[in-house]
Write a structure and sequence with these properties.
single chain, mainly alpha, two-stranded parallel sheet, 29 helices, 43% helix, elongated, signal, MSLNL protein, Stereocilin-rel
Length: 519
């Protein structure tokens, strides 16, 4: 009749109560440490319906229900090994279908069972010639490794044959393996292939491949791109840069070729770690299919190498500047000024983003005019003001005429070369169409006096934006019927660039990033 109050009983009351108290204790959410000790004392007495622990079987352990969580090593070590093993397997079989909370409880029981097994016998030395448990086979290898405790590592080595491991390697490596167990498995793999791991087996190493030293990797027979791709797969965990460098060097020494997909797996940072001679071996076509690589960590010489290969790879797109720019953009840090000027003067506005602009070679940027930069950035020109304190921008501004910065860019950049006092921005050219009643021909410009004869004059706006027609695209006002129209001639003042069509943005691609503080 106590009901849930049994959960609050003093520890000494539990072994002194009727053995049927066990059924009530199963309803308790948790037992205190002293209550668990009292429970184990009651069970060890053998005066319960379950009898002495040495007689327990799988059914007994299952009947204990949640009380199993309270069993200590003393009690569990008295349970027959076969019963513990059957119970462990039943828990492992149900594990995948359990919820998060129940899984945590299952793991506690599995660890307790493993610890009890280790405590029930003296720890084996490596010189022992036999396994103290049932041999690990293809049918139980996953269950055993999934719930392997640190105390059982020596048994993993003794009970798992090399042949069973190699045949089931992928399945084993898909399990959550501790670092200690991984080293045991690596040693067994090495024992299986004492003259060297065959290339087909290298592809199966997964997480174990990360345990090999640079010296060991230097002996691997990595000749296939499939092998290299399998080894670089992120599913195997993180490589050290030095390991990848050795792996790539070995692959290239054995005659391998880096393809676009391989470059994607290698990544821009590790690509930059290659020697210049190794980068030279990369086919231009591979760059064309490598996607957006971030090569900001490359030396300038390597950036120029990669840019030349990219220019060759995307040469077929040169007639469509927008597509050409999107492809070559990650490599523009190695572009010479001449090529940047060509992009600026293309018949399509590429609208270079600021992050890409800041990755350009500062020495080459110094060779660009104010107009070049304006045309390169296009509609992104206002962003340049936000980066006015970047070293690349500061050094470029200092080489430009302040008047040009004000008149051509008009975004408020300061720090250019000063002009003589009183110098003003030139008035943009205007073209006039004048009609006179008589057969008189005259020329009019924005700086010429306006003729007093009746005239129809069309004057373009004083400033021209990329979306505003230039004088050359304006249609003259219909002539006055009283006489012939006066022909127009170009002004001596340079006219604005014709309006351009903007290229479609590289919407599905990512601009290369840069650390602006070290740009």
């Amino acid at each position: 009749s106590l009901g849930a109050l049994v959960c609050d009983l003093e520890p000494g009351t539990i072994p002194a109560s009727d053995p049927r108290i066990l059924d009530k204790l199963k309803l308790c959410p948790a037992l205190t440490g002293p209550q668990q000790d009292a429970l184990n004392a009651l069970l060890l007495s053998g005066d319960t319906v379950h009898g002495d622990p040495s007689s327990w079987d799988l059914q007994t352990l299952q009947d204990l229900g949640p009380l199993v969580l309270a069993l200590n090593q003393t009690t569990l070590s008295l349970v027959a090994e076969a019963a513990r093993e059957d119970f462990r397997r039943s828990i492992a079989a149900a594990y995948t279908s359990q919820g998060h909370s129940q899984r945590e409880k299952s793991l506690l029981v599995l660890r307790a069972l493993a610890a009890a097994s280790a405590a029930s016998r003296a720890r084996l030395r490596r010189s022992a010639d036999r396994c103290q448990y049932d041999p690990i086979t293809a049918t139980n290898i996953e269950d055993i490794i999934r719930y392997l405790s640190p105390e059982m590592l020596d048994q993993l080595d003794l009970c798992l044959s090399n042949d069973v491991l190699i045949k089931n390697l992928e399945a084993v490596l898909d399990l959550p393996i501790t670092s200690e167990a991984s080293w045991v498995l690596k040693r067994k793999v090495d024992e299986s292939f004492q003259t060297g791991i065959p290339e087909q087996q290298l592809r199966r190493l997964g997480v174990l491949s990360r345990l090999y030293t640079e010296q060991e990797i230097g002996h691997w027979p990595v000749t296939s791109s499939d092998t290299l791709s399998a080894l670089l797969s992120p599913s195997g965990g993180k490589w050290e840069d030095s390991q990848v460098q050795q792996l790539l060097s070995r692959y290239l020494v054995l005659g391998g070729s880096l393809t676009g997909p391989l470059l994607q797996e290698i990544g821009g940072k590790r690509l930059c770690n290659l020697q210049e001679e190794q980068i030279q071996q990369i086919p231009a076509a591979a760059i064309g299919t490598a996607g957006q690589l971030n090569i900001s960590s490359c030396s300038q010489a390597k950036k120029e190498q990669l840019y030349r290969k990219a220019r060759e790879a995307f040469a077929s797109l040169a007639s469509t500047p927008g597509r050409y720019y999107c492809g070559i953009r990650p490599y523009l840090g190695g572009a010479p000024a001449e090529d940047l000027k060509d992009l600026a003067n293309a018949h399509v506005a590429i609208n270079m983003d600021l992050d890409t602009f800041l990755t350009l070679n500062p020495k080459e940027v110094q060779k660009l005019s104010v107009t070049d930069v304006k045309h390169l950035l296009g509609e992104n020109l206002p962003e340049l003001k936000k980066a006015e304190h970047e070293p690349l921008v500061v050094s470029w501004v200092q080489e430009q005429s302040q008047q040009e910065l004000d008149c051509v860019l008009g975004i408020g950049l300061q720090g250019g070369r000063p002009e003589p006092t009183g110098t003003a921005c030139p008035v943009p050219t205007t073209q006039a169409s004048v009609t006179t009643p008589a057969s008189v021909t005259s020329t009019a410009t924005a700086t010429s006096p306006v003729p007093t004869t009746p005239a129809s004059v069309t004057t373009p706006p004083s400033t021209v934006s990329p979306s505003t027609p230039t004088p050359s695209t304006l249609s003259p006002t219909p002539a006055h019927t009283g006489g012939p129209s006066v022909p127009t001639v170009p002004s001596a003042t340079p006219t604005a660039r014709p309006a351009l069509t903007s290229a479609a943005p590289c919407s599905t691609q990512q601009a290369p990033t840069t650390d602006r503080a070290t740009s």
